[in-house]
Amino acid sequence: MKKTLLLITILFVSTFGFSQTYDNSTYFISELIPSPPNSSSLINDSDNASIPDYQSDVDDGIEYFEFRGTPNATIDNDVYFIMIDGDGDDSDVGANIGKVRDAVNLSGLQFGANGILAIVVDITMDSGALGADGTLDISGTKWINPYATDLASSGANVVTIQLTASSIDWTDEDPSGDGINETLNKFNISSKTPDIGYDGSISDQSATYMIVKSTAGNPKNELVDSNEDGVLDGAATSWTIYDSVSILDDDDITTGNSEVGEFGYGKIIFVERLLSTDPLLHFDASISPTIVTLDQYPNYVARQGVKTGYAATTDGVDNDDWMAGRVNSLSYPSWKFSSNAARNIPTSLSSTNLATSTYGEVNPDFSATASIDGVFTSKVSVYPNPANEFVTISSAVEINKVEVYNLLGKKVISTSKLNNNNLDISSLAKGVYMMKLTSGESVASKKLIKK
């Protein structure tokens, strides 16, 4: 009997294999800028005024990664923020499709008092580094990340990795070929402090970003789609996946160019210019990912508010969880979204500037605010805030329902009855919460701080 049971077990495992676990309740991607636009205009954003203005063709120091979790909590061991290659270029076939290109070790890092963890870098030139002309000594020149000021005033825990660059690759990218190396093309990084596996430039363009727990060790360079079918396999089958999003371009999505497609492994996939006639988008249908088509590769993606799901629609009012869009160059840190509505979701992002107050803080929630007009907003106030025991909700119109959510998206208070307009918050732990106040068809979203 035991031998029979063992045989059945072996057959079951051999036939069906193992599968990764999805945990959608612990750690979340909050905001990603993995591929900031380059600058064709002349700039100098270093601290060295003697450097001639230059064009910039690097992501280093301008990328931004933000995560959300329980306020003040420490991230478990073996947790990584990873990037999986999904570019179906013919040169990647059999080698790089489904390869973990980057793995940033989040283990032991702590969320801030508001539940946010941000990772940025500063870059300092090593002794002997030279400018574009090959003679100007730029030793000690520093590039400070453009988010530093806003992050300093937030409640987030900010990990600023100090990078040292031994040199810079300068190139001539003027179409006229004038022979002048006017473009900063690459920082050659020689050291990272702390070294958590991030050198200021993460792989992008057709990539899936995940937060995973990998007890087998650092997953960098693992090939997790050996069948090249968009379904995770190999080492990934033992992962716990906390959150995931795919951002895919369109260069390999159509037939006729010897490419094999684009591969998305996330539970939400933003893809550029996908048509119903394009057969080469590969994904795991068994996890029912949300697929969102935009007119251009989005270089900004973020979760809305304290959402935890994977919905996204153009109007932004259907209980949406994500937003994404195309931001323009030279507008950091208050990135300006494209005026083309087809490049942004929700479309209300178009032609707007990303509020710098989002850095290190909970993001805006378009779903919660879409039905609010200015009059309704002006008639609602919540005080005191911060508060210990009670908050008073003052409104010129009747409030039908009050809901309070923690930063993991869990509803912790829900009531349709207020006692003299007071809401008892004494049972809440110290931290930051989001309040959702409903009046008829209108909804207001307020941030609440429990002392």
Automatic annotation (TrEMBL):
A Pfam family: Por_Secre_tail
Key words of the record: Signal
Signal peptide: 1-19
Protein's UniProt name: T9SS type A sorting domain-containing protein
Record carries keyword Signal: yes
Species annotation: Polaribacter pectinis
Secretion system C-terminal sorting domain: residues covered: 382-449
Keyword Signal assigned: yes
